[in-house]
Amino acid sequence: KxxxxxxxxxxxxxxxxxxxxxxxxxxxxxxxxATVNLATESASVHYQPSIMDTGDMINxxxxxxYDAKVKE
Length: 72
Ligand code: 9UX
Hints:
4 strands, binds dioxo(di-mu-sulfide)dimolybdenum, 2 helices, Alpha-Beta Plaits, Copper-exporting P-type ATPase
């Protein structure tokens, strides 16, 4: 079972920031596809909740020096 989640990402200041996050997310088990948008400060993630949860995603993003939260 796959789900789609949108995260609000804080702290990205150039296009390479978005690419860094995208690359790391796309390497994770349980993430099929992640796209990060600098202009809208968001990440859209297609993932498998049984393997990857939103807390893991947020931790990965924070390790890179940015912040993220689930969009309401
Ligand atoms: Mo751009 Mo982002 O030089 O961490 S990559 S500011």
